[in-house]
Amino acid sequence: MKPTRSILFLLALSLGLAACESGRQFGSDGSGTTLTGDPDAASEALTPTEEDIISAFQYEVDKQWLEASVLYDKLAQSATQPERSTYLLKVALMYYEGGFYEEIEPFFEQLGEQDIIELDLKYRETIRAGGYLGEGKIYQSLAALPEIGEIIDYRYKALALRIRSRGVLAIGKPLESAKLRMEISQFLQTPQEIEENHDFIWDALNRISESAMVRALGEQLTYEVRGWLELNLIARRSNMLPVKMEPWIDQWYQLYGDHSAAPRYAVGLLEESKRIYINPTRIALMLPFSGRLEKVAEAIQNGFLYAYYQDPEQVAELDIIDASNNPAEFNLQYEQAIQDGADFIVGPIAKDLIDLLQQRDQLEVPTLTLNYGNDQNETRLNLYQFGLRPEDEAVQIADYALAQGRHHALVLVPDT
Question: What are the phi and psi torsion angles at 298 (to 5°)?
Fold first, then answer.
């Protein structure tokens, strides 16, 4: 059941306005004694309206969106235009920032025609588009969003860019999404905002196929866009191997030393590659060559051996172990593999054995499991889980369909 606006307001009033009452008390020294001093000093005290403005802004800074919306609504009730319009927009904006997307449209619908002035209509439509996006109405959101160039206030322009970037990413246009996020950069101020925006750009770029990225690099691009694309291509083609990545990053820096990605992503990629790089001398491949997973184990072994012998630089020794399905016996095999010198273990496949590894206090050597454990929230140092869950496969199918411009799905399922 969705909370009604009245319930939201009652909740915020009980949580937020009580805090205002317990805060600074104008006309009192805080101990209950009334101040009866210099009239000039008294005139410096904030009026109730000014106090509400400051409190609302502080709630906004603290990301207490619901409490902020209540105060902005209170300010709107006593304000005249154009301030009333501004405060009403802030109410809706707080709903958006707080994730109360279903409240935005009803809020605007109950307003009178004169409540939002003409100069603010583009801002209203921007917030409304954000609400549609939050409710999963992607195309309705993109259709409702005003043209970016028509939005004057930089804060709403940044909001519109955020909304459009998320919308086009959802319909399979990651490069366009990344470009929009690069445009947002000029409006960001805090390190956290910049970092989160860069993370969004990187995630969008990771959704572009390598062939599409190479085609894009053959076109006319801005310095900012080209720098991001080339950096992402370095991460892909180096396979995050430090020996390959380091010279390429150096070359990238020569061209893009003052690029926005240089301070964190270029240096960070190289540091990350060194952190995760594993150069084992003895690998233990633990697979169950009997039982229900026998065929799966044989297929994995064949693929592993093919890759192992195809690598001319491979110097690690390889031990292939017929892993027991019995937890106690598997534990002994795992310990024996380490005692025999294994400094990297691949396996097991069975979920219950992966659960067994998750329950250990620590793992002595890096271990790459070939499935996921049952508890996705349980993590351990040196434990890496690899596999393709059904939900992951569904996401990949959806992403592929969107990239091909397909937006309608037909699912065939058994009736039993």
Answer: -65, -40
